Amino acid sequence: MRLNRHMTVFALLLAVSLIAAACGGGTSDTTAAPSGDDTTTTAAPSGSGGTTAAPDTAPPTTAPPSAGPVELRWFIGMGAGTDAPVIPLQQAIVDEFNATKPLGENISLKMEVVDADQAATILQTQIAGGNPPDIVGPMGVRSAATFFGGWLDISPYIESNSYDLSDFDSAFVDFWNIGGEQIGLPFGAFPQMMWYNSAHFDEAGLAYPPQEFGAPYVDADGNEKPWNVDTLRELGIILSVDENGLTPADDGFDPNAQVQWGYCGTLQDEFRGLATMFGAGNFVADDGTSFVFPEHWKDFAKWYHAAIYEDHFVPTPDFRASELLSNPSPLGSGNCSMLATHTWFKGWGTGELPFDEFDTAAIPAGPDGTITAKLHADTFAIPKSSAYPNEAFQVVGWMLGAEQGPNLAQIYGALPARISSQAGYIADPANDAGFTWDVGLEALSYPDIPSHEAWWPAYVESIDGLGEWWDLIVRDPNADVDAVIPQLEGILQPIFDRATG
User: Which three-class secondary structure string do you get for 442-491?
Assistant: First the structure.
């Protein structure tokens, strides 16, 4: 379900950008993400960049409670929540709120589910027409980025309502602080881990990668080495074989007849998500308009191209799309030894692999020793133009509280953000999918900030430009990556200029 949301995001974004242009607004974004899969007004905040996609109204520091009846609208469609089986489960949350009146007799809640394919357009139209909903979610980083500048900074409401954040990992709270504005509370997480085929490791006589972040890799003889991208490369080469059982380190190895790969990148294979293993970054400078190429991402581009065409432990795009690796996923095919992906992968992504033939490990450190486990996560945000910002915050606080939050997260298959709820979620047999959940819990302490899905000018056009540049590199075995790297500025800077211009 989450994967499908990622695949439909770009259609949503295109619709939003067209409407924003018609209304005189800027350009904007959304993933299933979480994503997952993102971003305020006028001048762009540090690390994000941007124009305003939605009309906004400056909120008061705190809003006084309304004396009369208040019906808050919960808008669902920018992420999960539109599938038929979950609609009645969400309605049950609404019904409980309206029956118990936890915030007073005058506050009620109404659910509004819209077509996911049209959600961004509908939301933009409602906001532009002065009829905004009060709560939007769940949605990931990309969906939040769609209305960059249109979300309420809830920091003063957290303070005025004395909302307790101690049950959240502080890094996860910071993840939703975009350009100095807290646009949401932590809710559901889909952490990234290194999923590995244990049968491949056993066959090669290799010890498994560590399940503790920052721990060393201990080989079969008890020798320790850092669990980093260099060790990933070493293992990846050993685990890659051709149809004759030869590895890339053996004479006679035939990369054109390869049948197994040691590492298959990430499931989406988009450059920013891949490169985040070398550290978080952004292609937009702090001024929100200037292109910048993070040095560690340049290093990644060279490392990954060599991994495909020199070391042969990462598949070419053609192999990646072939039946060898696509059914149902590289790891689930049984022909890939390691894949860095998220907990929404559980169940469907591992295919027919028995539980004892795969597990999860920590994400390896980048070249400088930094560990970054890119995060797909969902939150609930409040439009700045909501007529009832304080009441909306209180309802979100109730929805994501210790009692309701875990129930709501379970509806969407997300790991609860609340630390106190995570042990129960993991212990529930319904959530056992054959991997080690504790790895995912620890991954929450290493999120990518800024997010690999963070907003940048002309989101859709910029992603397309980046994708075309990257595709040429990974499809050309003779690409001079050092020479091609400077070309990206010539692609993206004009896009940024037109968008922010």
Answer: HHCCCCCCCCCCCCCCCHHHHHHHHHHHHHHHHHCCCCCHHHHCCHHHHH
Given this model, what pLDDT does residue 66 score?
59
Q: Answer whether the bond into residue 65 is a cis peptide, omega within 30°.
A: no
C-alpha span between 56 and 64 (Å, rounded): 19
The HSE-up count of residue 190 (CA atoms within 13 Å, CB side) is 30
Which H, E and C letters describe 21-39, residue by residue?
Answer: HHCCCCCCCCCCECEECCC
d(CA 176, CA 183): 6
The CATH code belonging to domain 192-361 is 3.40.190.10
- pLDDT for residue 500: 86
CA-to-CA distance for 250 and 273, rounded, in angstroms? 31
Decide if 107 contacts 74 (C-beta within 8 A): no
Which of 485, 447, 467, 491 is closest to 269 using CA atoms? 467
DSSP 30-76: --SB-BB-----SSPPTTT----SS---PPPSSPPPPSS-EEEEEEE
Nearest-angstrom CA–CA distance, 62 and 418: 25
366 Cβ partners below 8 Å, 6+ apart? 228, 229, 277, 278, 279, 296, 372
What fold, for 2-56+68-190+378-417?
A: D-Maltodextrin-Binding Protein; domain 2 (3.40.190)
Pinpoint the alpha helices (H) of 331-384: none
Ranges of residues in the chain with a pLDDT under 70 are 1-67
